[in-house]
């Protein structure tokens, strides 16, 4: 789960990591008032969306008075902000963070992520003197500019790891201890809150030589949210894909993608294989959808609705291996769904496994139009040709 910058900064502050003074505003008027309250004259107005790259997209503006802050907010609140992380459709801005403006001497990058390479799966601290830029870009163009320090939870975090980062960044003496402290606190947040990613980009050195977290992104492990009600409360459903939210509520795993072949599959492995085969057959999957091993007819119906409410979908592939989930139950779910929604899309069905004969019989007897495929690749080829025509 992702949270907003202002929420992440609140957590940083609670742990003693310095952040600028700020207020959240939902209207330009509130933004103006927030700027007066902050009372520093110069402020920065920042769009709050669950995506980075806001600066380049026009979602961050400096203002030298409350009046200017109000004007800047008029331009930002309500705008559809497009950044490299939002996709071309962008994200509507509902609120802004108004903060005291900072005089920046240098922008650094500091982050903690899970390192999945070499079967480690434990946190790695990353830092770079090329702050403010996308870390992916630094990583591909100047990998030598990224300092990485392993933080194995079995060993826990020690000061020397923080100092290694600080020396690597070429910091001056007093700031080394300060950064080491910040890294220790960041690691504590990461572990205590079950974060999966924390990025402070930029962590700045101010003109008066302080370290300050100017931006912050935090992601949390969805499967650990049950033990963090305080984090769960920060969820902003408005930032999530409505279909993905509906799927979550129905207990099916659905991730929207950009293609036009809708897939309904049981089991994550089979779902990924199905997507690969669609690509191999020259098509593009519209989604990843795993209805799970024990889906009910109702859940199948729900999954079908979710799948077909994406109007990019031009053809559907149902690929079910009946294990615990019996094929006849799948067939009933499809028929149920089709009778409730106007299903006119071409459909290819591949059923195998438990009660496959009964399942096919049920589908055959219905008025549904679909093609049966025996083999998996054949099914993929068929559905791709449907989607193309
Ligand atoms: P992002 O573009 O979504 O990552 O948003 P950031 O919060 O990282 O802001 C982008 C850039 O705006 C930063 O890298 C800074 O260069 C600039 N910026 C943000 N806040 C301030 C500020 O208070 N003062 C100044 N001078 N620049 C700022
Ligand atoms: Mn940033």
Mind explaining what this structure looks like?
The chain has 389 residues and is α+β, with helices and mostly antiparallel strands. The chain folds into 3 domains: 1-20 and 103-239, D-amino Acid Aminotransferase, Chain A, domain 1 (2-Layer Sandwich), CATH 3.30.470.20; 21-101, ATP-grasp fold, A domain (Dna Ligase, domain 1, 2-Layer Sandwich), CATH 3.30.1490.20; 241-388, Succinyl-CoA synthetase domains (Rossmann fold), CATH 3.40.50.261. 38% of the residues lie in helices and 24% in strands. The protein has helices at residues 5-14, 28-38, 54-57, 66-76, 135-141, 159-168, 173-192, 229-232, 242-250, 268-280, 297-308, 327-340, 356-365, 376-388, and strands at 22-25, 43-47, 60-63, 80-81, 91-92, 96-100, 104-115, 122-128, 146-150, 195-206, 211-213, 217-220, 253-256, 261-265, 287-290, 315-322, 347-353, 371-372. Strands 7, 8, 9, 10, 11 and 12 form a 6-stranded antiparallel sheet that branches. Strands 1-6-2-3 form a 4-stranded antiparallel sheet. Strand 10 (195-206) and strand 11 (211-213) form a beta hairpin. The longest helix has 20 residues, at 173-192. It binds guanosine-5'-diphosphate and manganese (II) ion.
């Amino acid at each position: 789960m992702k949270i907003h910058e202002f929420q992440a900064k609140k957590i940083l502050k609670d742990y003693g990591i310095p952040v600028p003074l700020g207020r959240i505003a939902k209207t330009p008027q509130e933004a103006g008032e927030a700027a007066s309250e902050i009372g520093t004259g110069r402020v920065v107005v920042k769009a709050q969306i669950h995506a980075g790259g806001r600066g380049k997209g026009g979602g961050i503006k400096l203002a030298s008075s409350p009046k200017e802050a109000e004007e800047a907010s008029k331009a930002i609140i309500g705008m559809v902000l497009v950044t490299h992380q939002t996709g071309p459709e962008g994200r509507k801005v509902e609120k802004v963070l108004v903060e005291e403006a900072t005089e920046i001497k240098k922008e650094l990058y500091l982050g903690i992520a899970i390192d999945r390479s070499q079967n480690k799966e434990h946190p790695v601290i990353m830092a770079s003197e090329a702050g403010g830029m996308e870390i992916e870009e630094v990583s591909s163009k100047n990998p030598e500019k990224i300092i990485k320090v392993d933080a194995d939870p079995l060993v826990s975090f020690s000061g020397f790891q923080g100092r290694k980062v600080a020396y690597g960044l070429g910091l001056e003496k007093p700031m080394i201890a300060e950064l080491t402290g910040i890294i220790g606190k960041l690691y504590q947040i990461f572990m205590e809150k079950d974060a999966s990613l924390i990025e402070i980009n930029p962590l700045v050195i101010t003109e008066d030589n302080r370290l300050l977290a100017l931006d912050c992104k935090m992601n949390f492990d969805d499967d650990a949210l049950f033990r963090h009600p305080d984090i769960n409360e920060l969820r902003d459903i408005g930032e999530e894909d409505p279909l993905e939210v509906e799927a979550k509520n129905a207990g099916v795993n659905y991730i929207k993608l950009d293609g036009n072949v809708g897939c309904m599959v049981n089991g994550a492995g089979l779902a990924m294989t199905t997507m690969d085969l669609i690509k191999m057959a020259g098509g593009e999957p519209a989604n990843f959808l795993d209805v799970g091993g024990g889906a009910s007819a109702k859940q199948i119906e729900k999954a079908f609705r979710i799948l077909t409410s994406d109007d990019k979908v031009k053809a559907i592939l149902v690929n079910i291996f009946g294990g615990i989930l019996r094929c006849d139950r799948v067939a009933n779910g499809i028929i149920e769904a089709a009778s409730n929604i106007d299903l006119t899309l071409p459909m290819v069905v591949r059923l195998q496994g438990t009660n496959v004969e009964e399942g096919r019989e049920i589908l055959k007897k219905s008025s549904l139009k679909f093609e049966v495929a025996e083999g998996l690749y054949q099914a993929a080829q068929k559905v791709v040709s449907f989607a193309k025509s």
